[in-house]
Amino acid sequence: MKFEFLVENKTDNPGIMAEHGLSVYIEADDKKILFDAGATDLLIENARKMNVPLDEVDLAVASHGHYDHTGGFPAFCRVNCSAPVYIHKNAFRESYGLMKDGLRKDPSGIRWSSEDRERMQERLILTDGPVHITENICITGTVPFAEGFRPTEKFYYDADGEMREDDMSHEQCLVIRQPEGLYIFSGCSHRGVISALDAGKAMFTGERVAVLVAGMHLYSASEEDRKRVVEQVASEKIDRVMPVHCTGIKAICELKSHMGEACVAATAGDVFDGC
Fold first, then answer.
1. What is the mean pLDDT of each run of 10 residues along the chain (275 residues)?
2. pTM for this structure?
3. Which three-class secondary structure state does DSSP give residue 37?
4. Of all helices (H) and strands (E), which one includes residue 42?
């Protein structure tokens, strides 16, 4: 089991660039996997510098339909000519984040051009429920809400002329079973990182979680909600928790305080072999 961060919000690796987004290259169970693709084609340049063979990737997974996780897929599909892209059927909503003074002007959703979408169409596999890639690799499909979940940010999309709140039903996780336990990858956890953990564990009943790699979307959470979620994550006794992307520096510091070396703040260019 090996995974490398091609894109992340921060980096301390010389020559590797960062952007607001997430992309992880994974090798497991004789498969090469791309989990998310960042906001732009930056993953291509970082992968080249890191000697990551994107042309050999067997499959790609989009965690949800937001630009900072899907923007690099058109470039990836030009480099890689065969890997299917597993993306939720509801991921193509043109959604907008809610600010105090109204909706953002720029869409939060997928920003592919019509030409990109047409070119990639045959590569897209639309998910809904769980999808088992191999005996040990699966995609959760829609992450169910955990009890007590409260969103830290809301999005709205145009549904036949009516603006509706996006329920983020297109949020899904990648789960990989290894001898030491489950590796759960969650892009933004818009439905809650505890929801993501529960969904991952439900794919392999009775297995423990060894590693959690997750954007936890706690940067905009209230102090009460942030501390509650941090304590819940810490109580899971996971071998290694990697809070990335939208987690927020306060939550990362609090997780580090609770978990010590078991909490790792990964950055673009970092490489990990197992836990």
1. 97 97 97 98 98 98 98 98 98 92 91 96 97 98 93 91 94 98 97 97 97 96 94 96 97 97 97 84
2. 0.97
3. coil
4. helix 42-49
